[in-house]
């Protein structure tokens, strides 16, 4: 029986999560990607982890100078102390002196001599971790695809007999941007880094583990960013197996008439879609539930795509929702999200961090239009939102999704059909009565149980939210232009300021 190999950390927590621990040691791995995708940074992180563990490590560079590597390290606040550099750079020294100085002309040297130099350095240092950067220069030296593949195979056989974990870096420039399937077959694992340029906003980066022999890993694309300190990888959210222990109780808003619409309120582990035209009060309703949860001592998070955070806090405080107090106590967190600068994978990771690190019990996403801007492909958006809501449901988190409709009046069309994903759907509409513009609220769907099917008036003022008695004399509600023709008495009027 073949025993499993020890696992070595890549030095990147997110990447290790994708690999479910790290890489099997003493194997050959391919790290491929176009220039600027983050290969060098990830390679340095891999070696620095070995240095921290007291291991000898070696960075063989055919493409970058030591000065360039030091510049990359300095940009992340690192030093190359402890990393042995073997640099192939420009010099006038003869090949006879190369064995002492570790320097040669790649374009003048025979590939065989280059490989021999590498092997001699490895034999002398006996490293535990090695990064070879990059195969593109080796491909150029070979000039013949068959000879290149033979040399890569020879390198693999050479490393196989030694206690070394090797990362081969390929920037794909020498192959015309095409992946080398033969090279893939030689390596124990293949990791691809990609840099995508969008029409607007920051470049998006993602990685994919193409293969990893004999080891389970999280497949698919995983977003990541390059920030001071290295790569920040956001493993793709997989809802399966994320079950938490919670009680499926109704969550109160503190407004009895509002809770009556959902026969007690939203249940823990459910998502509620608040939809309606701009200015109807969707965000305000969610803030009422957030304030009630914070008052109970629960942690809540609001992801604000549209409104400024300062404006939101001032509006909530003016209605007596005490947001400033809850922010200071730590029960409430509001994150301003710029959809042009954040990837959907990073957003999902932020949500997961709030739930698992802060034990967040309630989340508000305001709004889905902003979230959609972070991922233009609608089908992928719905699938990712479905996975995110499944995860939050299994964790017992109450989620509110704000979904604006087109226009202020009229059409009930939305640019994002996501109502089937949500457990409950609350609709807010404008209507006209006695020469005034008013708001009506009703529940269209409530998977957790029964719900009130009537239409009630919704009124929001400086003293908070009020929900009136059911209004029965309506016509044209589903046309998008509802009209109330009943008596005056059920309608709510201004209340005295106290």
Q: Calculate Rg over CA atoms.
A: 30 Å
* Helix proportion range: 25-40%
What average pLDDT do the residues reach? 85
Number of helices: 15
Q: How many structural domains are formed by the residues?
A: 2
Q: What is the beta-strand fraction?
A: 25-35%
What's the architecture of the largest domain, going by CATH?
Answer: 3-Layer(aba) Sandwich
Computed structural class: alpha/beta
Task: Describe the largest sheet.
Answer: 9 strands, mixed
Q: Would you count the extended β strands for me? A: 22
Alpha carbon gap, first and last residue:
80 Å
CATH C-level category of the largest domain: Alpha Beta
Low-confidence region ranges: 90-109
Describe the structure.
With 498 residues, this protein is an alpha/beta fold. It folds into two domains: 228 residues, P-loop containing nucleotide triphosphate hydrolases (Rossmann fold); 229 residues, Rossmann fold, CATH 3.40.50. Strands 5-4-6-7-3-8-9-10-11 form a nine-stranded mixed β-sheet, with helices on both faces. Strands 14-13-15-16-12-17-18-19-20 form a nine-stranded mixed β-sheet, with helices on both faces. A two-stranded antiparallel ribbon has the order 1-2. Helix 6 crosses helix 7 and helix 13 packs parallel to helix 15. It is elongated.
Q: What descriptors fit this protein?
A:
nine-stranded mixed sheet, alpha/beta, Rossmann fold, 2 domains, 15 helices, elongated, 498 residues
Which SSEs are present, and which pair or pack?
Elements: E1 7-8, H1 13-18, E2 23-24, E3 28-33, H2 39-52, E4 57-61, H3 66-75, E5 83-87, H4 95-101, H5 111-125, E6 129-133, H6 135-142, H7 145-160, E7 165-170, H8 181-186, E8 189-196, E9 204-212, E10 221-227, E11 230-234, H9 256-261, E12 271-276, H10 282-295, E13 299-304, H11 309-318, H12 323-329, E14 332-336, H13 344-357, E15 360-366, H14 368-374, H15 378-394, E16 398-404, E17 424-433, E18 436-446, E19 456-461, E20 464-470, E21 474-475, E22 483-484
Parallel strand pairs: 3-7, 3-8, 4-5, 4-6, 6-7, 12-16, 12-17, 13-14, 13-15, 15-16
Antiparallel strand pairs: 1-2, 8-9, 9-10, 10-11, 17-18, 18-19, 19-20, 21-22
Helix pairs in contact: 6-7, 13-15
């Amino acid at each position: 029986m073949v025993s499993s190999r020890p696992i070595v950390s890549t030095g990147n927590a997110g990447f290790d999560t994708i690999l479910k621990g790290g890489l099997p040691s003493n194997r050959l791995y391919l790290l491929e990607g176009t220039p600027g995708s983050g290969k060098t940074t990830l390679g340095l992180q891999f070696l620095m982890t070995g240095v921290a563990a007291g291991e000898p490590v070696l960075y063989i560079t055919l493409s970058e100078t030591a000065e360039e590597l030091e510049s990359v390290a300095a940009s992340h606040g690192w030093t190359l102390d402890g990393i042995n550099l073997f640099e192939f750079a420009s010099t006038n020294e003869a090949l006879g002196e190369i064995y002492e100085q570790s320097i040669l002309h790649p374009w003048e040297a025979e590939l065989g001599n280059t490989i021999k130099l590498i092997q001699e350095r490895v034999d002398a240092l006996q490293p535990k971790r090695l990064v070879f950067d990059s195969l593109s220069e080796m491909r150029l030296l070979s000039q013949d695809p068959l000879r290149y593949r033979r040399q890569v195979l020879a390198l693999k056989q050479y490393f196989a007999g030694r206690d070394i974990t090797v990362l081969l870096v390929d920037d794909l420039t020498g192959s015309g941007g095409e992946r080398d399937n033969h090279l893939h077959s030689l390596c124990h694992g293949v990791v691809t880094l990609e840099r995508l340029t969008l029409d607007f906003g920051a470049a998006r980066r993602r990685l994919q583990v193409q293969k990893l022999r004999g080891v389970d890993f999280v497949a698919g694309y995983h977003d990541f960013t390059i920030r001071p300190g290295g790569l920040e990888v956001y493993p793709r959210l997989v809802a399966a197996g994320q079950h938490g222990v919670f009680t499926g109780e109704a969550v109160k808003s503190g407004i009895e008439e509002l809770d009556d619409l959902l026969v007690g309120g939203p249940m823990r582990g459910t998502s509620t879609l608040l939809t309606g035209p701009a200015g109807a009060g969707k965000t305000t309703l969610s803030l009422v539930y957030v304030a009630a949860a914070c008052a109970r001592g629960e942690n809540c998070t609001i992801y604000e795509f549209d409104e400024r955070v300062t404006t939101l806090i001032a509006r909530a405080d003016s209605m007596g929702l005490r947001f400033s107090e809850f922010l200071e106590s730590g029960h409430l967190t509001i994150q301003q999200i710029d959809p042009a600068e954040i990837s959907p994978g990073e957003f999902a990771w932020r949500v997961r961090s709030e739930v698992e690190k802060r034990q967040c019990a309630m989340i508000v996403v305001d709004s889905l239009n902003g979230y959609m801007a972070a991922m233009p492909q609608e089908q992928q958006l719905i699938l990712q939102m479905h996975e995110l809501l499944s995860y939050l449901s299994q964790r017992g988190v109450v989620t509110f999704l704000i979904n604006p409709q087109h226009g202020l009046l009229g059409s009930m069309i939305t640019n994002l059909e996501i109502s089937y994903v949500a457990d409950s759907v609350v609709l807010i509409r404008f209507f006209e009565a006695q020469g005034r513009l008013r708001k009506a609220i009703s529940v269209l769907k409530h998977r957790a149980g029964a719900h009130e099917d009537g239409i009630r008036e919704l009124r929001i003022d400086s003293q908070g939210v009020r929900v009136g008695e059911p209004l029965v004399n309506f016509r044209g509600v589903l046309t998008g232009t509802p009209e109330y023709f009943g008596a005056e008495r059920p309608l709510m009027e201004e209340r005295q300021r106290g």
